[in-house]
Design goal:
Blueprint (H helix, E strand, L loop, with lengths): L1 H8 L3 H16 L9 H20 L3 H4 L7 H14 L3 E7 L8 E6 L7 H6 L3 E6 L8 H15 L1 H4 L5 E6 L4 H5 L36 H13 L3 E8 L8 E5 L7 H20 L5 E3 L11 E2 L8 H6 L4 E8 L4 H21 L1 H17 L2 E8 L5 E14 L6 E18 L2 E8 L3 E4 L4 H9 L5 E2 L4 E15 L10 E15 L4 E4 L5 H8 L25 H14 L1 H13 L1 H4 L2 H10 L14 E3 L4
Parallel strand pairs: 3-4, 3-5, 5-9, 6-7, 8-12
Antiparallel strand pairs: 1-2, 2-4, 6-9, 10-13, 11-12, 14-18, 14-19, 15-18, 16-17
Helix pairs in contact: 2-3, 5-7, 7-13, 11-13, 11-14, 17-20
């Protein structure tokens, strides 16, 4: 270890001169027994001096001013210099961002020049990915990662970790937002002086984009994430919300949404060690304070849908953590806390590397073998754990601005007590998974996202009339206002129908039993939280393309009823029980038309086939 680090640091001119002086001093002394030991002793002492001297030559923008966060160009210049100075660091372009002239970058830190996933995994290393600057106004993690990266290659206590883990840092994920610097949009936040903007160049919140991938950033991230397949994903944030003494809170991938063994491992081994070792440095950490008002009444686990980083990571059996430093604490304190978290997480992962790799492999196999998958969850409020919490009592006073009563956190009345912690998630929708899905190639946006996430697919070799199970959509209710560029579908009914559909050469057959089974199921099953259907990728099927004219269809409708006794009985029953229906001539004709052979078969029919093996 010392030899490799010494070689890196020996590039400095100052170090060379000091070494020459020290060696001449060693050899100038009178010859004594064991004099040969002076050389390694002096070398070690010089190395201990040279490391901090050399590291001081590379200073981050934050270190020059602890209420400042670097510009995008300053951040990338820092990492370029770090990579030039240290053979343990490699800087690579990871794909385009939302600003065409500025790519998404990744910084790889690994021992023995193992800078590809193949080499890293062959060496038995675990992988930690750190995503910084998804909200560039929340800059604590950006600055912390710069210091942490330098620590990993200059601190002898940490350098050895790179023989057991590889670290992949995205310095600034939201490139477009980082370029929109200002000092006003984070009105609740205590520093830094100037910072980036939450939205990207398209005004999208990238922490709502991991599934829908409206941004180039998200597509590039998907490819990078699947390329490295990290064991742990750490994403850095600064939280708004309640006032409390804690500098740092964590959102972790929801335990009960993870495969059982992986969830137990994460919450019983890795997270407890992380909480303990961070608190030993006098920085207390607790789960994210997500409450209905007063935290004293209880806090709730954050429902991390796959649109968020921790929910997305869980689809691939990766343990996701959002680190939320507290907005009211000084910027320097927040940076220090995030840096400590990165250090302790890397130490924990290095110490448990083989176990983490094994439990993830077990989780993959268990998921592949499951016949029924849960696809939607909700927090179970009927059960609460307890959490020792330190907070401030909620006070009330009349607002001098509005004249109405307002609440505030009274720092003169601190308390420490156990509060309810609602951290159990239960499934509310499950589905028997098919052997494969068939997706028409016409849905290029869907195929592009599947491909970016490394999903195995094969193309049909010829036109095929496929008999399979399909969903017919009904009772659809969508968002009244746009949300992140979409009008997501909130509620709808699904009727399963067996029918034939024409597919064509070049359409895509997607086997379900693959490593990314959860991603496949939770994007292609319409009822899943963040399915492609909910995000409007299939909306054209919700509109008819052919219609009927009432005055012409009147004559046909009568003969349809005469020739279909079942339909006629349903029609009469509806007229009897529904006065509004019975008084609406068009509605009655629509009822008959939609159930006749004249109705277009693709209307409201979800076009993705669910294919099961023959009985």
């Amino acid at each position: 270890m010392f030899q490799r680090v010494g070689a890196d640091q020996g590039k400095g001119v100052l170090l060379a001169w000091v070494c020459i002086f020290a060696l001449s001093f060693a050899f100038r002394q009178p010859r004594k027994k064991h004099q040969w030991m002076r050389i390694p002793v002096f070398s070690f002492l010089l190395w201990m001096v040279a490391v901090p001297l050399e590291s001081q030559r590379l200073q981050s923008p934050f270190e020059a001013n602890n209420n400042y966060t670097g510009r995008y160009d300053e951040i990338m210049a820092y990492y370029r210099e770090l990579a030039q100075k240290h053979s343990l660091v490699k800087l690579v372009e990871a794909g385009p961002s939302d600003v065409s002239s500025f790519p998404l970058n990744a910084v790889i830190l690994s021992g023995r020049k193992q800078f590809t996933p193949e080499k890293v995994r062959k060496a038995g290393k675990a992988v930690l990915m750190i995503n910084g600057g998804i909200h560039p106004g929340e800059a604590d993690g950006i600055e912390a990662a710069m210091l942490f990266a330098r620590d990993l290659v200059t601190d002898p206590r940490l350098v050895a970790l790179l023989d057991r883990i590889a670290v992949v840092i995205i310095p600034v994920y939201n490139v477009g937002g980082s370029l929109l610097r200002n000092s006003t949009t984070r009105v609740n936040q205590n520093g830094p002086e100037v910072y980036g903007f939450r939205g990207n160049a398209q005004y999208l919140d990238l922490n709502r984009d991991f599934i829908k991938c409206d941004s180039r950033n998200a597509l590039s991230f998907s490819e990078l994430f699947r390329y490295w397949d990290p064991d742990v994903l750490l994403e850095t944030h600064t939280t708004d919300g309640a006032d409390f003494p804690y500098v740092l809170t964590l959102i972790a991938s929801q335990r009960h949404k993870l495969q059982t063994e992986l969830g137990n491992y994460f919450y019983k081994r890795l997270l407890p060690q992380l909480y303990r070792t961070v608190s030993e440095q006098r920085i207390e950490m607790i789960p994210y304070v997500h409450s209905a008002g007063d935290p004293a009444t209880g806090i709730y686990d954050f429902m991390d849908f796959p649109r968020y980083s921790t929910g997305y990571a869980a689809l691939f059996h990766c343990m996701g953590i959002m680190a939320e430093s507290h907005m009211l604490k000084p910027f320097a304190a927040r940076v220090s806390a995030q840096r400590l978290l990165m250090t302790k997480l890397s130490e924990a992962l290095a110490g448990q590397a083989s176990d983490v790799i094994a439990v993830r492999a077990e989780a993959r196999q268990a998921a592949i073998q499951k016949k029924v998958h849960d696809i939607r969850w909700q927090i179970d409020t009927s059960f609460a754990d307890s959490l020792l919490y330190t907070g401030y009592e909620l006070g009330r006073k009349i607002s001098s601005v509005t004249g109405f009563e307002r609440y505030y956190f009274d720092h003169s009345k601190p308390y420490t007590k156990r509060i309810p912690y609602y951290n159990t998630c239960r499934p509310v929708s499950s589905v028997e998974v098919p052997e494969c899905y068939v997706v028409p190639g016409a849905y290029g946006d869907v195929i592009e996202r599947l491909r970016a996430n490394g999903i195995r697919m094969r193309r049909l070799g010829r036109d095929s009339l496929i008999e399979a199970e399909f969903y017919r959509i009904g009772d659809l209710r969508s968002a009244a206002k746009p949300y992140e560029g979409h009008f997501p579908h909130r509620n709808f009914s699904l009727e399963r129908v067996k029918t034939h559909r024409q597919y064509f050469k070049g359409d895509y057959l997607i086997p379900v039993r693959q490593d990314a089974i959860r991603y496949v199921v939770e994007t292609l099953e319409p009822d899943a939280h963040d399915s492609f259907f909910r995000w409007n990728f299939f909306d054209a099927i919700l509109e008819r393309k052919e219609y009927f004219s009432d005055f012409l269809f009147e004559e046909i409708a009568g003969s349809i009823l005469d020739n279909d006794p079942v339909l006629k009985a349903d029609f009469q029953d509806r007229r009897t029980k529904d006065p509004a229906f019975a008084s609406n001539p068009h509605a009655m004709l629509e009822f008959i038309y939609s159930r006749s052979k004249y109705a277009e078969p693709g209307y409201m029919l979800y076009p993705v086939a669910r294919c099961f093996p023959p009985d």
